[in-house]
Amino acid sequence: MWDALVDVVKSAYTAGLGEGTVPRPLIMPLVRGELVGMIWVRPIKVGEDALTGIAELANIVAAAGADEAILAWETHDIATACQLPVVGPAPCLNMVLATRDGHVLHQFPYSEQLISRSPEGWTSVAPDWRPAPAPQPGGELVPPIQAAANFAFTPIELDHPDPFGVAVVLMEEDGYSVRLTEAFAR
Asked: Which helix (H) or strand (E) holds 102?
């Protein structure tokens, strides 16, 4: 499952970079090894709003009662949005596999090969994936990702018969892009 999800995320990043954008941070909850879905962070403003928006990705994991979560983000994108220093290789796609017992950081550095430049100044690039360093159990995470990993496994107490359904609706209303697998779609 891990390799397939890495391939999906790398493909999404390749497509996004080719269109001149970096895909937004993403979380993928898993329940007993089954993918619940993919949830992208809502549109965020630079600073505190970015920190909060990314950390709130944890809500869907907690509401699903997931036992694992995979978060994906790009080093420069998070540093810029959250006004944080760049930590680790850059440019780099980062993925972390988090559980109640901890996390393992996987990094996929790349160099950018220019494809085109628009008259408006947008650039399209193709990632040239570099060798990945060894996975890092307990590797250092940027604050909003660390918060999401920490809170993902804190139970959400909603006085409702379907707390997961409520969480999905509330997150969608806040602008998160929620794509559930068929088994979890409501």
From this structure: strand 102-117
Q: How far apart are CA 142 and CA 147, in angstroms?
A: 9
Task: Show the 3-state SS of 100-153.
Answer: CCEEEEEEEEEEEEEEEECCCCCEEEEEEECCCCCCEECCCCCHHHHHHHHHCC
Q: Which two tokens stand for residue 67?
A: 């036992």
pLDDT tens-digit series, residues 30-88: 999 999 999 999 999 999 999 999 999 999 999 999 999 999 999 999 999 999 999 88
Query: What pTM, to 2 d.p., does this model score?
Result: 0.91
* Distance between CA atoms of residues 185 and 9, nearest Å: 21
Please classify residue 183 by burial: count the beta carbons closer than 10 Å to its beta carbon, then call 0-12 exposed, 13-18 middle and 19+ buried.
exposed
Chain segment 130-163, per-residue pLDDT in tens? 999 999 999 999 999 999 999 999 988 778 888 8
CA Rg value for the chain: 16
DSSP secondary structure letters along 41-59: PPP--TTHHHHHHHHTTHH
Provide the token pair at 95. Answer: 């993925």
Distance CA 35, CA 121 (A): 38
Is residue 35 within 8 A of residue 121, CB to CB? The reply is: no
Q: Which one, of 99, 110, 112, 104, lies nearest residue 134 by Cα?
A: 104
Sign of CA dihedral 14, 135, 178, 175: negative
